[in-house]
Amino acid sequence: MTSFASSDIWLAFIMTLVAAISTFMGAMTSLYFRKVNQVTLSVILGFAAGIMIYTAFMKLMPDSISILSSQLSYAQTKITSTVWFFVGIVLLYPLGYLVKLWKKKEVERYDASLQYYRRVAILVLLTITAHSFVEGLATFLSFLATPLVAIPLVLSIIVHNFPEGMTIGALFNKISDSMNRRRAIFYSVIASLFEPIGALMAYIFILKYSNPVLTGILKAFLSGLLVATALNELIPNSQLKGNRKVSVQSIILGMFIMGVVLVSASIF
């Protein structure tokens, strides 16, 4: 394992913990709104979808291709990144099926609308949790490698983690009649903690068994998972009840904000 100063390792862990707090604070902000109406939900889901799509195509996939191209040929890089991108997309469907089976016992307890939103909430929670885990890996390793480069990366993660957390909170707020807030808070904590858990896994395993190809594959896979979640879950739900215009504007705004954040991070 590469040797690092203990102060650098602790600071890297602190960076991931701050990013986790951003996700949790976003969740608490929308979870404790008095009531999330459909327009508010449309804005939050559309904004989060814009962030996810832009992050997938303008950050994760380019990073994946860059990392893989340093280890593989041009053709191998394209094939590997493309295959794992679509593996990420396809995985959402069995996840959705498993969540549906898990929630099958609710058929008699809740109406169809509430069952639907509960399913969406769990799927989005799983996706954001996976995203947080990979971000924890990336933040920890990038900080140890080049701290000056990692600081703007962490700032960009903090900025987009907050609306992702708001998405979790808004969906749990929507289904608050069927789920007490204590359980919603517990789920939000779990999703947030996967950022430092990812850092811990990086410290225990990846620093010892570092593999750039695996890192590139993970980024391509996560890119596909984010795109599938945005297109299949967030955008359709943000456009319910005639809120298409609000949804599209929110998606564009999310992309724009994430674009500004990523460009600013690369400059400063």
Automatic annotation (TrEMBL):
Short name of any one Pfam family annotated for the protein: Zip
Presence of keyword Transmembrane helix: yes
Localization in the cell: Membrane
InterPro entries, sorted: ZIP (IPR003689)
Domain of life: Bacteria
Keywords assigned by UniProt, alphabetized: Membrane, Transmembrane, Transmembrane helix
Spans through the membrane: 12-33, 40-61, 81-99, 120-143, 149-172, 184-207, 213-234, 246-267
Topology of the protein relative to the lipid bilayer: Multi-pass membrane protein
Entry GO terms, CC: membrane
GO MF annotations, alphabetized: zinc ion transmembrane transporter activity
Name of the protein in question: ZIP family metal transporter
Species annotation: Odoribacter splanchnicus
